[in-house]
Structures are given as structure tokens and as C-alpha cells.
């Protein structure tokens, strides 16, 4: 089995040189950390014995200078690690956001929606004390060598203390990791559940569901709190044990030093210095134990990000191609849902010449919206291919293809920003092109009636606009830039009679511009101006395909209605309403 790449490790590895510099600073700090113990040793053994003020002054000057350098190195290391974290976050953020969009477009999960928070977790870890402690930990061996030079008994005492602290750290990992992992994962689920409630607050209030929703949210939140409390209690006990071990180690070092002094194998200065060195040696281990929660958090974030970046749909994009004329050919398209393994689209084939208009109808859950996503290249077909002017539309570079395609999804999904920015597809956009698209959608007059016209802020997901206003602005966005292929998924679902009349005029204008147009609709009246109609059966296959007049004549007579595979236009139109339709 081929080993999976670790994209997070690759990003962090690209800043290896900065991390090595920070590690070198840690080495210098570890040496300078001996300043206090060496100063005490010299004062006890040299200054007090010689009673020399000059020696005391010189030692003090040297010690102060060393501590100042220590402080400078500590500041530089922390600043370097913080900036390294910022660079790592900068290198990952856009890539992770793109992977989130690609993955959620097809089959989003709760964990994937938290990926940007995972990037922040990794970025913040580089500026945390935990990483500094990890960098300091290897220099335990350096302190052990110094202690050995003072006397091997000190090494034995520190080795026993180190073994006890490492055992405590291992026990902490075993006892706190499971509940802490469950707590973090539950928090992600609770956050996603709460966000869903906020996004549908009008439904909760309008249907009296708020209390039920809050009760369910609270029960899930309480589960996460209990897991977190269990982990915190265990971590608190083990942190207390590690602190007690370190204090006992200081007593043991002092006792060993006193024994050596009484046995004339060491001086009082050596006793004090060894005690300080031994305590300093074990400080990083204790820091790691106390920061174990953040170590587990970054480990989980690392795993989630690696899985996301490895599993996100990848496009084999080729070179930019000339502007298409709009010839669309779908050949034996199948689409199987990845998680359920259910076939949604089955062996759909059709062809449109440039400038032709196609209407797609069918019962609810027959795969109409899925087919629309396949046609615009948002999703890859499981088998078969969708070609625009002969090129695989899924492999066409998205940035260059976007200017040639217009798409209105079933859920309009406007974004926080102004009307102008939404029509211009979140770009600055030229005013002329924005107004032209709005006029083509017959939305220009409506937009001018808004408080600030095209500069009106529409709020998150366009919640300051009515459903009809959102839909007409969504249609204008689909028409921005004079696209050659336009796919509209139920563009009249929220429109009144005037809006539907405007939509009919828009479709007629697209016909005059020779724009290939595909319209999915439940109300067949909007499809009367189409050149062809494609009827999907409940299994996602093609029930009928042909000129509009022939299909209308066949289905208005109710022909083949008893076969079970074909749904008359009237039935297709009444099986779903704007308030009852689900995703297809």
C-alpha cells in the first residue's frame, strides 16, 4: 500500500531553516541558563574564600551580561517562532480553504468545516511555551554532562527524577488523550450544530422549535463538557504529581550535595550549583506535561488537516483554452454518491449545439440538481464525460472557465458583501459589466430601489434581501461577463408573476446572444421557449429527450404515465413546491 504524503509536514519542513535557528537559540539559552549556578559556585568557593571585592564585581558584571544575552535570545526565539507560525499559517490557509470548498461541494463533513480553526491551532502552537519546552528538552543531556563533571551521584539523582517525570508524562498521555480527543471532536460537532441553528434562526422561531433545538444543543454541549472535565481532572492530578516530583528532586539534590560536602567530595558552592542545574534540567519536561492539552490539540489538528488535503478532490487541470462557442456534449454520464454508493445519475447522454436552450424536468430526487453540477464541472462524473467544445469541463482550469460559465444553484447562496460584489462574483468588477448583467437579468431597476443601490450591503448569505431579490441577483451573477454556457437550477422558484415574466425575457435575450442555456424547472411554463427538453426518471436515467414541442405534446397527453418510469409535466410540476423541495 502506497504511503500517504503528509502535506502539513511538507509545509512545516519548508521552514526547517528557521526552526533550526530557533533550536540554536535554545542551545545558547541552555548554556547561559548555567549563569546563576556558576555565579553562586564562584561566590561560595572563590569570593568568600578570598574576600576579594574586585572578584565579586567582575563576576557580577559577567553574570549580568550573560543574563541580558539570555533575555535577548529568549525574545528573539519567541519572535522567530511566532513569525514562523504566521508563515506556516499563511502557506496553508488558502490551500486549506480551497480544499474545504472542493470537499464540501461534494460531501462536506463537520470536521472539514473546522479546518481553518485547525490551521490557527498549528499557527498558535509555534508561539506557545510548549514548543519552547520541546526545543529545550534535548539539552537535558548537556546538563547531565555538567552534573557528571561535578559528581556522578548528581547524575543518578537527576536520572531517577527524569524517569519519574517521563513515566508521569506517559501516564498523562494514556489517561488524558482519549477523553480530551472526544471533547475536542464533540466541541466541533456542537459548534457545527449551533451554527446550523443560527443560520436557520427564522425557522426555529417561526415554528416554535427554539426550545427543542436549544435543549438538544445543550445535551450535546454537556457531553463535550463532561469529556473535557474528565481530561482536566486527570491532567490536574498528574500535573500536581510532576510538580511534587520536581520539588522532591530538589530536596534529593540538596541532600546528595550535603552528603558529598560532609564526605569532603564537594564544596558548598558545588552543592548549590548542582541543585539549580538539576532543577533547570527537568523544567522542560514539567512544562511539556503541563502543556499536554495543547500538544494533543495540535496532533489532532495535524491529522485532520493532512486527511483533508490528501482526500480533497483534485483536478487535473490542463492549459488555458480558447473561449468556447458553447457546444455541450454529455456522454454516458453516471454519478454515484461517495458515502452512500447510491447511483444518482445513470447513463445520461445528450448534445446541444451552441446557442441551443435545454429544459430539464423530472420528479423530486431524480438527480436534476446533481446533473447541473456535473454539467458546470463542479462535480466530476463517476464515469462518462461532460465536454464543452470538445474539452472535459471538469479538467478545464477553473479560473479561466469561470468567465465562460454562468450557474445559479437551487440554493442561491449569496455572500456577505455588496450587491455589486456578488454580481461581479466577489471581484471588483467593472461597473459597466455589473450593470449589463443586472439589466440582462431585468434586475437593474430593483437594485436601484435598494438603500444604496449596487453598494447595498446584503448581510451574511443575503439575509437582508427577500427570496425573490436574492434569486434575481443570483441570476445576474450567473450572467456576469457574457458567459457562453448558462445553467439555471429552478430560477423561478421564488419569483412572482413579474419576476417570472422578467426571467422569460432574460431567456429570450440569451437565445438572441447564442448562449447555450440549460434551465431546470418544476413549473413547465418557463420551458416553453426551450429548444429541447430532457426528462429524468426517478432512477436518474433519461426518460425522454427531444424537441420541446414533441415532449410537451407527449406529456401533456399523459402518455406513458402508467409505465412508472415517466412522469407527466403536470405531475413533475406538482410533486414539489418552493417550500418542500429537497436537494437532488
UniProtKB/TrEMBL annotation:
Its main location: membrane. Pfam families: ABC_tran. Keywords: ATP-binding, Membrane, Nucleotide-binding, Transmembrane, Transmembrane helix. SUPFAM superfamilies: ABC transporter transmembrane region, P-loop containing nucleoside triphosphate hydrolases. Residues 328-564 form the ABC transporter domain. Residues 20-297 form the ABC transmembrane type-1 domain. The chain crosses the membrane at residues 20-41, 53-73. Gene3D superfamilies: ABC transporter type 1, transmembrane domain (1.20.1560.10), P-loop containing nucleotide triphosphate hydrolases (3.40.50.300). It is found in: Cell membrane. Signal peptide: none annotated. The keyword ATP-binding applies. This is Type I secretion system permease/ATPase. It comes from Rhizomicrobium electricum.
Amino acid at each position: 500500500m502506497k504511503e500517504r504524503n503528509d502535506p502539513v509536514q511538507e509545509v512545516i519542513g519548508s521552514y526547517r531553516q528557521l526552526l533550526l535557528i530557533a533550536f540554536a537559540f535554545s542551545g545558547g539559552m541552555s548554556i547561559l541558563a548555567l549563569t546563576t549556578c556558576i555565579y553562586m559556585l564562584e561566590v561560595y568557593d572563590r569570593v568568600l574564600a578570598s574576600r576579594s571585592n574586585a572578584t565579586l564585581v567582575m563576576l557580577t558584571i559577567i553574570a549580568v551580561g550573560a543574563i541580558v544575552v539570555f533575555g535577548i535570545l529568549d525574545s528573539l526565539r519567541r519572535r522567530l517562532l511566532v513569525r514562523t507560525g504566521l508563515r506556516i499559517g499563511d502557506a496553508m490557509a488558502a490551500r486549506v480553504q480551497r480544499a474545504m470548498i472542493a470537499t464540501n461541494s461534494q460531501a462536506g463533513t463537520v470536521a472539514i468545516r473546522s479546518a481553518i480553526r485547525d490551521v490557527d491551532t498549528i499557527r498558535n502552537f509555534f508561539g506557545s511555551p510548549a514548543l519552547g519546552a520541546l526545543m529545550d528538552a534535548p539539552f537535558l543531556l548537556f546538563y547531565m554532562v555538567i552534573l557528571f563533571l561535578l559528581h556522578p551521584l548528581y547524575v543518578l539523582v537527576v536520572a531517577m527524577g527524569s524517569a519519574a517525570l517521563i513515566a508521569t508524562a506517559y501516564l498523562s498521555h494514556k489517561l488524558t488523550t482519549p477523553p480530551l480527543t472526544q471533547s475536542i471532536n464533540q466541541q466541533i460537532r456542537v459548534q457545527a450544530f449551533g451554527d446550523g441553528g443560527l443560520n436557520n434562526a427564522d425557522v426555529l422561531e417561526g415554528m416554535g422549535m427554539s426550545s427543542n433545538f436549544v435543549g438538544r444543543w445543550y445535551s450535546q454541549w454537556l457531553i463535550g463538557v463532561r469529556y473535557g472535565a474528565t481530561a482536566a481532572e486527570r491532567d490536574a492530578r498528574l500535573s500536581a504529581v510532576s510538580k511534587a516530583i520536581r520539588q522532591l528532586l530538589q530536596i534529593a539534590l540538596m541532600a546528595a550535595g550535603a552528603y558529598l560536602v560532609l564526605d569532603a567530595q564537594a564544596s558548598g558552592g558545588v552543592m548549590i550549583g548542582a541543585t539549580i542545574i538539576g532543577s533547570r534540567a527537568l523544567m522542560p519536561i514539567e512544562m511539556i506535561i503541563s502543556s499536554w492539552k495543547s500538544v494533543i490539540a495540535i496532533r489532532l489538528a495535524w491529522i485532520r488537516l493532512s486527511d483533508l488535503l490528501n482526500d480533497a478532490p483534485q483536478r487535473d487541470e490542463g492549459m488555458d483554452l480558447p473561449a468556447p462557442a458553447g457546444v455541450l456534449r454529455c456522454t454516458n454520464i453516471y454519478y454515484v454518491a461517495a458515502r452512500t454508493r447510491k447511483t444518482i445519475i445513470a447513463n445520461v447522454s445528450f448534445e446541444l449545439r451552441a446557442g441551443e436552450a435545454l429544459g430539464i424536468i423530472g420528479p423530486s430526487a431524480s438527480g436534476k440538481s446533481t446533473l447541473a453540477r456535473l454539467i458546470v464541472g463542479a462535480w466530476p462524473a463517476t464515469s462518462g464525460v461532460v465536454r464543452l467544445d470538445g474539452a472535459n469541463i471538469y479538467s478545464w482550469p477553473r479560473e479561466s472557465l469561470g468567465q465562460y460559465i454562468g450557474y445559479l444553484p437551487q440554493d442561491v447562496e449569496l455572500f456577505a458583501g455588496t450587491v455589486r460584489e456578488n454580481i461581479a462574483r466577489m471581484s471588483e468588477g467593472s461597473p459597466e459589466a455589473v450593470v449589463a448583467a443586472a439589466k440582462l437579468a431585468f434586475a437593474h431597476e430593483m437594485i436601484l430601489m435598494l438603500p444604496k443601490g449596487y453598494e447595498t450591503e446584503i448581510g451574511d448569505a443575503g439575509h437582508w434581501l427577500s427570496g425573490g431579490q436574492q434569486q434575481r441577483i443570483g441570476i445576474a451573477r450567473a450572467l456576469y461577463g457574457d458567459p457562453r454556457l448558462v445553467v439555471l437550477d429552478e430560477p423561478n422558484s421564488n419569483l412572482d408573476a413579474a419576476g417570472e415574466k422578467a426571467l422569460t425575457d432574460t431567456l429570450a435575450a440569451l437565445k438572441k446572444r447564442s448562449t447555450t442555456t440549460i434551465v431546470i424547472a418544476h413549473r413547465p411554463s418557463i420551458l416553453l421557449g426551450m429548444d429541447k427538453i430532457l426528462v429524468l426518471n426517478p432512477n436518474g436515467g433519461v426518460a425522454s429527450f427531444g424537441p420541446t414541442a414533441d415532449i410537451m405534446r407527449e406529456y401533456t397527453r399523459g402518455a406513458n404515465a402508467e409505465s412508472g418510469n415517466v412522469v407527466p409535466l403536470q405531475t413533475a410540476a406538482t410533486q414539489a413546491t418552493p417550500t418542500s423541495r429537497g436537494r437532488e
